[in-house]
Amino acid sequence: MNIFRSKTFAHGIHPPESKDDTSGLPIRQFPFAPSLVVPLSQHIGKPAVAVVREGQEVTRGQCIAKHDGFVSVAMHAPASGIVCHIGLTPSITGKMVPGIFIEPFPASTQEIMEGAACDASTADSEEIVAAVQQAGVVGLGGAGFPTHAKLRIPEGKFVDTLVINGAECEPYLTTDHRVMLEHSVDVMAGIPYLMKATGATRTIIAVEANKPDAAETLRATIPDGSGIELEVLPVKYPQGAEKLLITALLDREIPSGGLPLDVHALCVNVATTAEIGQLLPHGKGIQERVITVGGPAVKNKGNYRIQIGTPLRFVLETVGVEDDITRVFLGGPMMGQAVSSLDIPITKGTTGVIAFTTRETGFRDGHPQYPCIRCGYCVDACPIFLNPSQLGLLAEQDHYRRMVDDFHLMDCFECGCCTFVCPSHIPLVQQFRIAKAAVRKMKVTA
Amino acid sequence: MVRWTKTLEIRSSPHIAGGKSVNAIMFNVVLALLPVTAFAVYAFGLAALITLGTAVTSCLVTEHLLCRLTGRNSSVGDWSVVVTGLLYGLTLPPGLAVWMVAVGGVMAVGLGKFLFGGLGYNPFNPALVGRALLQAAFPVAMTTWPTMPVDRFTQLPSSTLAWPFTKPVYDSISGATPLAGWKFDRVMTEPTDLLLGYVSGSTGETCALLILLGGVYLVMRKIMSWRIPVTIFLTVALCSGLLQLIDPAKYAGPLFMLFSGGLMLGAVFMATDMVASPMTHLGCELYGVLIGLLVVVIRVWGGMPEGVMYAILLGNAVSPHIDNWIQPRVYGTKKRRQTP
Ligand code: SF4
Ligand code: SF4
Q1: pLDDT number for residue B18
Q2: Which residues of chain B have a CB within 8 Å of the CB of A260?
Q3: Which of A164, A296, A321, B326 could disulfide-link A205, Cβ–Cβ 3.0 to 4.6 Å?
Q4: Neighbouring residues of A137: CB distance < 8 A, sequence distance ≥ 6
Q5: Backbone phi, psi, residue A21, to 5°
Q6: Is pLDDT at A86 greater than 60 in this prediction?
Q7: C-alpha span between B315 and B271 (Å, rounded)
Q8: Amino acid A2: pLDDT
Q9: Contact between A389 and B13 using a beta-carbon 8 Å cutoff
Q10: Dihedral (CA of A20, A22, A25, A27) sign
Q11: In chain A, what residues touch B330 (CB-CB under 8 Å)?
Q12: CB proximity B121 to A under 8 Å
């Protein structure tokens, strides 16, 4: 291997990490909200189908909705209680989506119900894929793609390397960090399932250099002769994007519009891996997840294990917020989505709840937007090597088709690097989102 | 539970923004120009002070008035006009009549910047546009260079205060610039004098050392691309080196070429104008090579001793084409994008 090639990808940015507030705080259990709502669609693909009725009592961990087709996963009761209602609930997209409302029993011990165990050493790959689907596992890194669908390798393709993504490059987020520290054993337990299901012979756990304690802990738990390696990467955003992570580690470039599978690699988030290692041996399903609740507007910042379906309002009221809170978003500040309603629930894909005050958000608002001064900073920052400046100019003139045909708009994954560096404060990502939506609409109507 | 009544704003990600704003960039350029400006005042005294002051003021006033006239918010506060004004002033010969300086300032902002739509839309460096127009209008005044008189801090050259539309009278015999000396009289100037600025020339172009200092500062603050000045220097050095090898008696060497005339100021502060230079690395390098070649060609074979200004303006003109032609190779695609 060339020792002069530092293991990272080209371009990218270095936003302030802002992780110190929560990276040292151990994971703590969050209280149960008086009412939980489990949306039937927390993943990409078809929504799950409810298998409980209103008024029915459920046990924590019980399957309350089953998958519908292959690209779909099951849902489990986040608490023992009663199904009080099945109906619409607000979601992060602003649309109302169907969900199951559960009122936990206040006196319950909240024991988790177990199901049919799946043993990594005896199960075959089909059984593992089915078990992962039944456990309701989706990409916990935020994408929400059903994990089992990635694990089933289509006929004629193969995977030689499995990448466990512990980069966590988004500022403020420390959930993966804490999971790697406190659940390294679960991570190691999860990897054999993934390797067996995909047939990968080599596994690389990728951790960014700002989490040396996590890297050390993981390194110490790697079993001998397991084919698992650990790689510490220089800190850079957006290293956690799977395409770029694979390029950084393996120097393979995923073709435009393609999947990691096309270069014989597969990338799974580290928290997802830990979840698989924890759930499958007991046949359990996901009922909670670790979430960083932080940002300057939050009083009791921390890494909390929160029940799926906990309303955001309950989360923020429990931790307490500053009076000048102005913005709340799910995920990190680079790619997270601002919330429009505090009634939306925590879902499997929620990595963080970050709240800002006027001070943090003031930066861009206080400055007027200038025309593009052609500084080229965005061109230097875009990890996909697009030309955001050109795209921005075209977007202003509504030349959406040219953006797609000549400037690869659809390869943009909205990482936000370009908007972050733009000295003219042009909302490039927002323009690209609007353009993409318009183009998709054109395709549908055409 | 307390009822929570807060208005939350919804905005598109990213929710944080990085370091520099347009203001900050332009302010840093002004900072980088300060040593050069200070030396100009030291070297040419009151005359330089008045030239620079008039240049900056005329640019600012023009920008403000034009903004008012076109019903926009005044953009005087964003420092970009100060940069234009300073750069423009630094390219003028000290002792140029005040009214000429003002006319050029108005043209720099009015024709070089505003006509094209203001900041971000100017295809040429506005300061150079102003200077080029002045050069065309007053060729004699623009090539009359005073030396450094001892009484420069107490006395003004009479040419400075010439009435509008009268011909300025020069009281001291002007010194030839090193480039003109070389071109027309075959007189060589010592490279150390060039480096330290003890020669005659435009207000701000004489001290190469301080210009480089400003450039290094901007590169370190990641505001300026080092590729443009460095490729210009390399090209000029290489070409003049080759020419000198061919005929040492006829052609000046690389050191002289690099440190004389407006090359330093032009390469470091003018050619790097963000708006009028390419965006990609390769594009910047091509642009630098092109300007370097043009400088040598104009200086050696052209009718004028100085060619940096025209070389940069030509470079500005091709810059959008370079950008169009050189697009980065998009991740996951095989070829560079083809311009349809
Ligand atoms: S948001 Fe899109 S265009 Fe901007 S840097 Fe990221 S990938 Fe490139
Ligand atoms: S960063 Fe902003 S101002 Fe600079 S080139 Fe890109 S879009 Fe234009």
Answers
A1: 79
A2: none
A3: A164
A4: A73, A146, A147, A148, A272, A275, A276, A279, A286
A5: -60, -35
A6: yes
A7: 8
A8: 43
A9: no
A10: negative
A11: 256, 384-386, 408, 411
A12: yes
* Partner A contacted by B328 (CB < 8 A): yes
Check if the beta carbon of residue B272 is closer than 8 Å to that of residue A376: no
**Tokens representing residue A367 in the block:** 């400055």
Provide the token pair at A398: 């509504």
The DSSP H or E segment spanning B243 is helix B227-246
Q: What are phi and psi of B191, to 5 degrees?
A: -60, -35
Q: Which of A139, A282, A242, A128 is nearest to A194 (CA)?
A: A128
pLDDT confidence band for B317 (50 / 70 / 90): very high
Q: For residues B260 and B198, is the Cβ–Cβ distance under 8 A?
A: no
Question: Smallest Cβ distance to A416: which of B13, B25, B117?
Answer: B13
Q: Is the CB of A412 under 6 A from ligand 1?
A: yes
Q: Classify domain A119-282 at the CATH superfamily level.
A: NADH-ubiquinone oxidoreductase 51kDa subunit (3.40.50.11540)
Average pLDDT over residues B149-164: 65
CA distance B2 to chain A (A): 8
- Interface A–B counts its CB contacts (< 8 A) at 163
CA distance linking residue B326 with residue B337, whole number of Å: 8
Q: Is the peptide bond before A238 cis (omega within 30 degrees of 0)?
A: yes
* CA-angle at B277, arms to B276 and B278, nearest 5°: 130
Helices within B20-79 (DSSP H only): 22-44, 46-69
Q: Whose CA is nearest to atom 8 of ligand 1?
A: A382
- Whose CA is closest to atom 4 on ligand 1? A418
User: Chain-centre distance of CA B277, in angstroms?
Assistant: 12
CB atoms within 10 A of CB A25: 16
Number of Cβ within 10 Å of residue B181's Cβ equals 18
Q: Whose CA is nearest to atom 4 of ligand 2?
A: A375
* Nearest ligand, measured from the Cα of A244: 1
Residues B117-135 pLDDT 10s: 888 888 899 999 998 998 8
Give residues with Cβ within 8 angstroms of A371, minimum separation 6: A424, B117, B118, B119, B120, B121
CB contact under 8 A, A373 and B16: no
Task: Give residue B1's pLDDT.
Answer: 41
Give the start-to-end residue ranges of the domains of chain B: 22-174, 179-188+215-322
Residue A151 near ligand 1, beta carbon < 6 Å: no
Half-sphere exposure in the Cβ direction for B273 (13 Å, CA): 31
A414 CB under 6 A from ligand 1? yes
**Residue whose CA lies nearest to ligand 2 atom number 1:** A422
Map residue A308 onto helix, strand or coil.
coil
Distance A104 CA to ligand 2 centre (A): 51
| Contacts with A253 from chain B: Cβ below 8 Å | 331-332
Kindly determine whether residue A372 and residue B340, on different chains, have CB atoms separated by under 8 Å. no
| Stretch among B33-47, B120-134, B185-199 having the lowest mean pLDDT | B185-199
CA A240 to CA A219: how far, in whole Å?
20
Question: Does residue A422's CB lie within 6 angstroms of at least one atom of ligand 1?
Answer: no
Tokens of B276: 């009028």
Measured CA to CA, the distance from residue B111 to residue B123 in angstroms comes to 11
Q: Which pLDDT does position B168 carry in this prediction? A: 59
Q: How many residues does chain B have?
A: 340
Averaged pLDDT for residues B146-167: 64
Residues of A in contact with B8 (CB under 8 A): 325-328, 338-340, 342
Fill in the DSSP letter of residue B184.
I
Domain residue ranges in chain A: 119-282, 377-445
Quick check: A339 contacting B, CB < 8 Å? yes
Give the closest-approach CA distance of A437 to chain B in angstroms. Answer: 14
Q: Degrees (nearest 5) of the Cα angle A407, A410, A415?
A: 100
Amino acid of residue A151: L
| Cross-chain residue pair A375–B279, CB shorter than 8 Å | yes
DSSP-H helix ranges across B70-190: 80-90, 98-112, 126-137, 178-180
